[in-house]
Specification:
heterodimer; A: mainly alpha; two-stranded antiparallel ribbon; 65% helix; disordered C terminus; B: Penicillin-binding protein 2a (Domain 2); Beta-lactamase; five-stranded mixed beta sheet; 36% helix; 19% strand; disordered N terminus
Amino acid sequence: MRILLTLAVAMTFLSAFTLYAVNYETRGLAEEVKLREKAISAARRDIAILKTERAHLSRPERIARHARKLGLAPAKRNQFDAVPGSGMPGSVMSVRSGEEE
Amino acid sequence: MSNGVIITPGLADGALKRPEQSTDVYEQAQAFRNERRATRARSLIAVALMGLAFMTIAGQLIRLAMNGQTEQRISISAPLATAFARPDIIDRHGRLMASDIVMESLVADPQSVLDQQEIADKLATVLPDLDKKGVLNALADRTKRFAWIRRRLSDAEAQKVHDLGLPGLDFRPELRRSYPLGRSAGHALGFVNIDNKGLQGIERYLDKRESVEPVHGPTLSARAPLRLSLDVAVQFAVEDELAEAMRRYSAAAAVGLIMDVNNGEIVAAASIPGLDPIVTMDRFDKNRIDRLASGTYELGSVFKAFTAALAFEDGVDPRARIDVPPKLEVEHYQISDSHPAEGPLTISDIFLRSSNVGSAMLALHSGQQRQKAFLEKLGLTTPMATEAGSIARASPPKRWGDIETVTISYGHGLAVAPLQFAAASATLINGGHRIKPTFLRKVGRSAGHTERVIAPETSQFIRRLMRDNVASKGGTGWRADVPGLEVGGKTGTAEIPGKGGYQAKSVIASFLGAFPMNKPRYLTLVCLFEPQGNRETNGKITADRNAAPTTGRIIARVSPMLGFLPE
């Protein structure tokens, strides 16, 4: 009987500690999830800024300005050609360089 | 007790009755001692276990207390501001036009600020345009625990402020709308307020469509981007050519539009001077209004396309020759042409020569009721709106008599927004289908899905007229021609009304174009406001000398981008 009682007490304590440990492990994991979410959020913010910066740097107005500095000009119609068999009617595919009207 | 026997509760009653049995007593005492030792051991174990439990709890408390310290930030208490997380806006090819980014805002706790003047002075050293008086006012009320100092600092500014190490200040991340293309398509995109709520243009449409989410903090929207029909590259080319035209012809302003005639998709919509969505002052600058949709103007002879279409619909034979006099008197007003006709004219001649008298005769033949109904059918006089907002409503004359019919036939007396004019004109070109202009990409929608309001033959007739007007040297629009591409169009030069009547030297020069005319896909509209004559134009300010060549340059530049190559 004593052994059973001792075992029961021991089991109770063990269960209590296990529950306790699981509880705090869960909290720990929740904390970790929170940290990961924060990291994801921070990464998304960085991506948003980089995306905007890329769009800003590649805006046509800026490219045109730099192109003009290099002596380039808007492409003329005869500098465009279509790739035969591309399956895209009328699509503009390539630019022939060095041609002027 | 008196006989020396130790009586304990653990002994049996019989033992007390036999004191003479000393061996039994000894054994009993021994058993009692053993029992007591066992009890003590059990107590010790229990105490040890309890101690362990308490130590564990204490340990956890200490751990939580220590971890908790890092979680708790000393932050300035403030009402949680509601901002709006907005989806991105992209062009038809997926290029970014507007997006939310997170920026730091500077806030203060007036109670924690030791020296308000020092804060204002030091902040001004790193934020030169800071309103010091405003900062002092914000910090003056020490009963408050929160005050905005500066919303949305750049990273560099935030770092400089941080380096000052001023007490009582803190940073709060906030959403900010960014427009990476600057002023490009600014009128169409519109703008948002300080809390990221859409106030105008497509941004307002996003709010109306409930695509924005109220958030308490810098949470970016996870919603799909809004895809517009605009093409960033075409938009820039139009804006660039318009800016060049303004410089070349010393114009006060210019508008340009490229629209798909089959589904109303607007590929480029420019009103120069443009509007930068993040520059608040631009919104109050009268010179930067959206002339394409927010202003109504008399556009002049470009209206003759409607007059010719109505005459054709009303059965005027295109081969019939009309005796057009040099002058026509209607209700005591004299109508004349700058180059009077030297003989009878067909509808085509009237269109190509841009004869006011001829147009007046065609309009009078149809009558005011027919003209009114026809323009209404095309959507020229009814309310119209796009996703960017309502288009300024045309103001039809209160009295629509003969003289109004005559003046409207050549584009005076009925002021319309250029965008509404373009949408109505698209019907003349696309086979007769009424379209609704839109800034949204509509995949798979064709002309067959829209209501037909004029006969296809009428549309074909107008297309031919427009092509002839550009292809033949006798037409007014030949300067808009682009070799290898069938361009068509109509010029219009409208004097601007002012004090004492119309101003002869102050005009709006317009060109309504379309290409390719064998199977029109795109409509173009260029309006130059108050252009001046120069050597290139031989001192003239008419549309054939400025708006037409500008349209030609625009079409030559953008047609390859739109998939049309020279034949």
